[in-house]
Structures are given as C-alpha cells and as structure tokens.
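[audit] Reproducing an earlier prediction to check determinism. Same input, same settings, fresh worker. If the tokens differ from the archived copy the diff job will pick it up downstream; this log only records the rerun itself.
[audit] input (75 residues):
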Amino acid sequence: MATGLRSGVPARVTAWGLQNWSKLDDEDGFALSYPGIAALQLGADVLTDGKRPEQLDCDPAWKSDPLRRGIGVQN
C-alpha cells in the first residue's frame, strides 16, 4: 500500500466489501489496520465499497487509532 501511494499522485483506496465506517473503533477493521493508517498518512482518500462510497474521516480514525500517532512509514 505505502509503495503505491508514495508516487505523489492523488490516490483513492477502496476498502473492498466494507459498506460503511460504523465500526470505526474495531481494531480488526480496515480503518485501523496498517494499510488503512498508511493510506491516511500518505494522503489517500479511503472509501467504502458500497453503492454510495463513504470517505473515511481522518479525525475520528486518528482518535480511535490505538497507536495514536499512526505508523512510521519510511521514505
């Protein structure tokens, strides 16, 4: 995920099979996974896979993030 997002081109990441962000505090869910946090840190739009995709709001994700500061991504 991080390698693909480092190109500097605006990117969208789709959380396949996820219809909404109602379980944002679920540590096993995509929003708080390493790929999800890396996508947010690298500026990607993270969207659900529903008929009407919902964009993940960074603020609630960071507040729910068990790591609190995200993850270290090497350049």
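[audit] rerun output stored. Observation attached for the diff report: The first helix runs from residue 2 to 5.
[audit] end
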